[in-house]
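Board notes (copied after class):
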Amino acid sequence: MAEGATFNNIRATSAKVNIPAWGCWYAEVSLDGDHTLTGVHTLRAADLTLSGAVISGGSQLGRSVYRIAGGKGGWGRTIPRKAYANDAGVKLATVLADAAREAGEVLGDVPQSTRVGPEYVRPAGPASRVLQELVPNGWYVDEAGVTQIGARPTAALTIKATRTQPLDKARGKIVLASEQIATILPGKTIDGITVVDVAHEISAEGGIRTTLWSSTTPTHLDALSALLQQLDPNRAFRGVTEYRVVALSGNRLDLQPVRVATGMPELE
C-alpha cells in the first residue's frame, strides 16, 4: 500500500478514520505484525496526518489491531466534581482549561470574555461532559490533536475526486475515491451538501474510499422536521443508531453516536 496508512511508522494493512464535525475523531487500524503500542503516536492515512492516542487493542497471531482517539485520549477520562464562583462571572476559559489539564489534553484558544455565570459546578464524570454541557456541538479535536472551541472552518472542497456512488439526497451521503484526503474534512461543501461526518477507509483490496454525510434533513424541510419532532419526539429512538463507548464507570457506559450527522444525543 504505497499510498496507504501507517501508525507509529508501522505499515497498516487496513485503516478506518472517522472525523465528525464536533467531538473527537477516532480510528481503527490493523497493523502488519505483533506490535505493543501505548500512548500518543502519528497516524498517516494517504496524505492525511493525525495525532492520536491508543485507547484499546493489542496483538495476536501476527496481527495487531488498535483503536485510536484524537489528541491524548483523555476526554473519556473521569475527572472529579469542582465548584467555581466569581461575582464578575466564571470564565468559560478557566473551566475548560482546568478540565483539559486534568484530562491531559491540549486546548486551543477560548474566548476570554465568555462567562458561564457567577457560579458553576462541574459534575464528576468523563471530561468531555464539561464540553458538551458548556459548548454543546461546539468543539472538536483537530488533526494535530488539539481541542478547538467553535465550529470547523467552512469552504468548498476543491480537490478532484471520483464519485464512486451518486449523491444520495435522502441520506445526505456521497462516496468518493481520491488519494488526496487531507482536505476532506467536516465543514466542506461538495455537490450542494455541507459535510458533517467523514469516514476514510483504506485497504489493500479497496484502496482509498471516503464516505461523506451531511445533515439528513435538507434546509427546505426544516419546518416539517420540527413539526414531526413535536408530534412524535421519540421517533429517532425507534431506529437503529450506532454508538461507541467513550468511558466506562462501574456498570455505566458513556456513549457517543458514531455519526453526529444523525443528530442523536450522547447517552449514559
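Comment from the instructor: Residues 43 and 171 are 29 Å apart (CA to CA). The mean pLDDT is 86.
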